[in-house]
Structure formats: structure tokens, C-alpha cells
Amino acid sequence: MTTNQVVARSEVVRQRRTKSVPQIPPQKIKRDYRPEAVQSPVKPKPKTTGRIIQSRPQAYNTNRRHYDIAFNTSRASIRTPGITLPALGPRLVSSILIVVMGFVLLTLWNSSIFQVTGAQVSGNLRLTEADINSVLQIIGEPIFSTVPEKIEQDLIHDYPDIASVDVKISLPNQVMVNITERILVIAWQSKDGSVNWIDAQGYKFPARGQAENLVTVSADGEPPTYYVEATDPTNTSDTALASATTPIVFIQPSMIKTITDLISIAPQGVTITYDSSYGLGWDDPRGWKVYLGDNTQDVSMKLTVYQAIIDKLTQEGVQPKMINVEYLDAPFYRTQ
């Protein structure tokens, strides 16, 4: 066998193997990409001179909550620093609010800005601001503790010469009191020497200061008790302040009119008198007392009878001590 034949035979065998073995296409190599943490560039520390201060290691809270936020990056995931959110329950929030509100209220209550320095009084004629403030006792008190209704009741109770009261409060510390005082008519002088003032409705109250154009009544007794029925207990008017069992009005309003009418009837310069048994009258300058009763009904007729008695006694030479013409059908006089 020659060399050419051997070569040809081996070539034939190689070709047969190549045809019998199927060719497998080359596989693509899969590469795995691992996310890498993006780190910020490290800045070089500046050189320091002198003593080196070692920083203390910070204590990290191991119970912090971590949140991963995904950013739209090509093939990298960035992990943000952990944010610590405290867990506040409803009870804790309520407790904090109560403490804060209590602190605010305590501060306002004790603040000098909201402390009352005194009531601003208007409409007063005889009463002064000192008189009003002495009853209220609100100087230095917080404005929040001031009650207008109580102030009105206290003033009317302690000062009967006040007809009406209107109290207004404004922040930070203003208390405005507007009062209306009663109109004086009579100065009632009792047997013990005490003097009280009486208004047109018959209310009596202590004399304060000076008053002009008053009718002075010298009394040796008290007038008949006069009762007023209270209609509305919530009202502070004169009628409402009265009680069904307590005498509020000292003299009946009709008796007030009788006293004022006697001024024009009695001789000029005389003093009007009152006796609990004989009523109203005056002291005649000629030396006797005259009584016309508790009313001035038929006053002209009473004066006529009175003058007739004077004429008769003068003719008889009798000096009376008292003449009473309260009852027209039974006038009398006394010489002792």
C-alpha cells in the first residue's frame, strides 16, 4: 500500500465522523451583574495642628425602622440612610395636649396682664369708685373669675340707693360698671337722730354726702309696713328685688305724694312731722302740732276745718297743744 492511499483513507474516515456528529451551536455566556453600592467620594480631611480630638462613637438605635426607596437607575440600587419615626399613640398625644393646655391656662391665670386693677364706674352721682370697688373686691383677681351677674347682685344688695346696674367685661382686664342711682325726695330723720334718704318709689337708704332740695320729715315712729310682691326673680328691677314676705319699700308711694303736697299747704319754713298714731303734719310756729293723717284727700276741706278750730280757740283764749283733722267727721284738739 502506498502512502497516498493511506492519506486518502484517513480523510474519508474524518469526513464520516464530521457528518455523523451533529454540530451544536455555540451558547452565549450569561454574565451576572451584581449591584454595587454607590459611594460618595471621600473628601480628604484637612490637616490640623495641635491636640487631636478623638470623636466619641455615636450610639445608634438598633430599633430604627429602615425604608428602601427604589430609584430609576440603570443597573444599580441605592440604599438611603434610615429614617427614625417615633411611634406616638393616641394616649401619648392626648397627654401632651393636656399638659400644654394646662400650662397655657395656668400662665394666663397668673399673668398680671389679665388681673383686674379696678372697676370703671359711670353714671354715679353720690357713690364713688372707691365705694363700688370696696364691695366688689375684684382688684388683683383674674378677669376670667369675674361674673357680671354676681357683681350686679352684690351692688344692689349693699347699696339700696342704686336703681339698676349694668356690668360689662372686656379683655385683658377691664370691668365697666354703669349704675343708675335713685332720685332723692325725702330726708327721713328718726327719733334717734339718724337720717335716711327716700326716693320717689319709697325706698330708704343711708344718707351719703350732701343732697339738695329734699323735704325733711321729723318722725317719732315708723310708717306702716309696705309689702311688694316679686313678679320675676330673675329680674333686677325694683319690683323683682322685693319679696312677698320681706318689706322692701319703706314708705308707700302714695304717702310720698302726700308729703310733697304738704310743702305747698303748710306755712313756709315749717318742718313736716310724722307720728305713727296721727300721721303727717307740721309744727305750727304758734306753739302746737297739726296732724292731717296719712293722706291728703279732701285737704282743702281739712284746712278749712283746721282754720275754724283755730278761730274758735282764739276767741275762747285756749292755747292748744295738738289739733287733729285727719277725720273730717271727728276732728279734735288737746290742750295738754
Short description:
This protein has 336 residues and is α/β, with parallel strands linked by helices. The chain has helices at residues 3-20, 90-110, 129-136, 148-158, 238-241, 253-265, 299-316; strands at 119-122, 162-170, 174-181, 184-189, 195-199, 204-206, 215-219, 272-275, 279-284, 288-293, 322-324, 332-334. Strands 6-5-4-7-8-9-10-11-12 form a nine-stranded mixed sheet, covered by helices on one side. Strands 1-3-2 form a three-stranded mixed sheet, covered by helices on one side.
**What percent of residues adopt helix (DSSP H or I)?**
25-40%
Poorly predicted spans: 236-247
Q: Judging from the principal axes of the Cα atoms, what is the shape?
A: rod-shaped
- Rg, Å, rounded: 55 Å
CATH class of the domain at 184-334: Alpha Beta
Structural class: alpha/beta
Q: Tell me the fraction of residues in β-strands, as a range.
A: 15-25%
Structure description:
With 336 residues, this protein is of the alpha/beta class. Among the domains are: 70 residues, Ubiquitin-like (UB roll) (Roll); 151 residues, Rossmann fold, CATH 3.40.50. Helices cover 28% and strands 18% of the residues. The chain is built from seven helices and twelve strands. It has a nine-stranded mixed β-sheet with strand order 6-5-4-7-8-9-10-11-12, with helices on one face. The longest helix is centred in the first third of the chain and has 21 residues.
